[in-house]
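User: Assemble these into one structure.

Assistant: Restating your components, then the assembled model:
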Amino acid sequence: MRGDVHQRRAPVSGGTALQLCLDGLATSGLYALTGLGVQLAYAGSGVLHLAAGDVAVAGAIAAAAVVGGGVPVPLAALIGLAAAALLSGAMERGLVRPSGGRAVVATAALVAGGAVLRQAVAAVFTHSAYAFPALQATWHVGDGVLRASDAVTAGVALAVAAALAVLLGRTRAGAALRATAGGEAAAESIGVDTRRVRAASFAAAGLLAGLAALLAAGRIAATPASGVGLGLKGLCAAAAGGLGSPLGVCLGAVLIGGTEVGTTFALGGGGEAITFAVAALALGLRRGVRR
Amino acid sequence: MSRVALRPPGPRSWLVLLVLVVAGVAATPALLGGSDLTDVSLAVTRAAMAAGAAVALSAGRPSLAMAGLGGAAGYTSALAAIHGWPVPLAISAGAALAAFGAATLGLLGARLGAAAFAAFTLVATLAGGALLAALPGVFGGSGGLQPVPPLSFPLPGGDTLTFSEVGTLHVTLTACALAVAVAALLVQALPGARWRAAGSDPERSADAGLHPLRSGLAALATGGLLAGIGGALGVHAAGVASPSAFSADAAVVPLLAALLAGRGGPALAALIGGATAALGLRVLPNLGWSGPPSADALATGILAAATLLALPALLRRGGVRGERVLPAPPPEAPWPGVAPQGGPAGLRVTALAVVPERGAAPLAVLDLDVLPGAVHGLAGPNGAGKSTALRAVATGARHGGEQAVRVHGASQDARAVLLPQAGGGWPGTTVEETLRLAARAGHRPRGETRRAAGTWIARLGLTGATGALCETLSHGARRRVELARVLLLRPAVLLCDEPLAGLGDADRALVLACLRAAAADGVTLVVAEHDRASLSRLAAATTELRPLDPGPAAAPDGAPA
């Protein structure tokens, strides 16, 4: 996503290294948020949310568009997040649930749904790209520039991961989610409404990915197609982390985000290819993703 | 690997093939004369990519990389031709690269389930697109690589036959239609049945000597070859190798076309993919659509919307409704011979730990000594581990090296086969294909497999359902297919997991008679069964499997063990 930002520069000074680290953390944060969303949806439904990036970017573009129309930024952010959550929940209701547990059909339906959504967004929001306002403050450290928005992104991702770890491990909602993942019939026998759990897990996935897309749109303007990369890198981060614990997802995100920032800094445009290759390998070499 | 229910091509695919050929002839350049034909050629090449995705999907490997592989083949062929290779050689190199790439992706993603594999192939496609963008000096950047030499053929004597736009369309159409037809035949014939079987149920496949990985790789490579032929021909028709093949929108078209085609297989998928491409490249622009979204993207969106609308129909094809119930055949008729391959053999199981899953505590410890041709019962409460024990014995016998399980007979060929508790036949194959695959796996001569399968079909009253997918049969009929399937494998030891569960009186009598006949032919039987009355009538001796730690984890009565 940041292929145009860094230029080859040697040797790497302390300030630049710091800047790269924060940049890497922020980029990882974006993928961690998306990956946590994918993980939640997977936990609730056993389906890989292949349209997470598309619903997220649809929300972010809607938010950026209403900001352009004069709506205050916090309200616009809420509108964007709500749109992403609603779209994602609707996909669970309309595409995943009717698939009746057949992973291939559910996957294809999500892929198709994502494609329809991309075209619809492109048809409705006709600008080529949409930027969302971000914190503009910067600090100069040595010859590096640290952006406040990067710190916010990394901080939000960490906070969400910690909150999710608590939510999954310690609360009733987390128990319901784990019960649903363990087996639908068994979960229903102990009074869990598995339909609600699955819809909620997808809506929450949309919300988290939408948050990532909003933060990303503050760094680089969003286009309808930019959701594909965000969603897939998040998915790979989640898969690399084993789709089990929020901490694992964060580590997976650091692997992919770190690769992206590092290789883009060193190689320019080639970094993106290496990042996708690492993401593909992270997904391909995982044992856990059986569906 | 998750279960993928896919249908083999039925008679309808021949109709589709006919339509494809007729449409091809009808759409000859004479009828389209005057206008730019490049778009038509490109639509034809994209049809080949959709057929490629359908071949891979038949083996349970949904690939989103087919458009990207076609694109890679296109760039390869373009680069080779620009550097002076004869165009046919360049196209072959491109197609070969795509086949190799598809198989490599299959190998790297071998451990993934179907959905994750689809995601994996999409990420790989995007990696390819990013690589193109990163090396504009080699690949021409966002404008693509051009000019690519047109389609030409070197003639003896140093001349070169260069095709006009019309000729290019003719060649493209012929080559792609041929490739799709061959692929459709392949998927429908026994190799395709093997791919479908291995892709739809890995556990049953192991006993029949089918390899899910090998089948998946073969199907993916074949699909990649098809996509590569299309992609490579496309760049010479268009005169440019474009990076648009690596976009997410381009990636979804072949898979959605394959999914929509279902039992129509590669031929119908090609038709759907080609029609979508023609809509985006020619029809919509001619109607004056300028976007956004672009005409091509809009066509993709329309296909995606059609897929979503067809979702209920796609699910219905899985055989949930309209199950076939067949009349029970008379239990008195003689049984086909099932003499074990390699002669009768006994089974010795020594202190086999019955472990439900890797790393878990053992449920029980099993000791068995069954003489050749004897029938031995395995009883025990639910949760005692009867099913797990039989699966462990089957796995141990298959791997050979396991000291705890030994199939001892006169020959090394003697093998133990599991008759699983649920289902029957492979979900993705028809009754006849299932039984022919089993007959072939039972080491019969090539000419004898059809006859052996036919004998069982007649004996079990399955004549009215030979072309039906196993998963569309009623429970009783599926169990009959399963019985024939395992016996056609000519096992020395048959491990039956609750063979009578859920059957009506007629089917129970049939199964019991068949098992007795098998025992009389020298097949050693180990039968796990709830119904002690039936078990005592069948088995000379019975081993009681008792859980080591009954505890609270024991399942309630009626649940599968």
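The radius of gyration of chain B is 27 Å.
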